[in-house]
What does this fold into?
Amino acid sequence: MLVDFHDAPIHPYGQMRTWPNALTREFCHAQLDAHRAFVPKTFVTTVFVNMIAGPIDMNNGMFDLRQGNTTRVDENQAVPSSLVSEAARTLITFSGATILPDIPEFYNKYPELLNFIASQKMPWVESKTLAGEIGEYIVMMRQTDEAILVGAATNESGRAIALPLSFLGKGKYEVKIIQDAKDGHYLTNRETFMVDEKIVTSKSQLQLQLAPGGGACLIFKAIVL
It folds into this structure.
């Protein structure tokens, strides 16, 4: 039996070593707790504080960000986030189970972001926080057997991030970069994003531009000659 504890569970303190079937728990304000309880700064604070002792379930990965008649019957406010940030949060959050809170139709509308989520094949070969500051922003790398994934998220402030790629192995990599559009904003323009592809090495450096409340998703795959 796999267990996901919700609604004020006991804080994580290493129990997963004894009970590995306890995959995750809602030891945090989750996104479905209502927009008044969860804003971009909430996320980039919680992942540093609540997640330090074990996995948490924050209900990240919402793709229906509209206000009004949405699939969220108990909350009629727009989600204060961007699509790219939502996808990035599913990688950044350490959890034994990624719980996607929206219906399939909304994920199928954005195949590039859905592919980023589908590429998250655990168990991780390696996980590393590449950059960040509590309450400000975070850049997380997780490696699978097939790819290296990077997710970035920021608070209500937009920011430029210089990302050295020293975490890559030898040789060349193809990277797909998904980030917010230049006019993206977590309150006014949540659903626009740009997709770019580059060839890079471990000596390269990428420039990420995160919109206010936004994020970035990157997929690196080694080029086999």
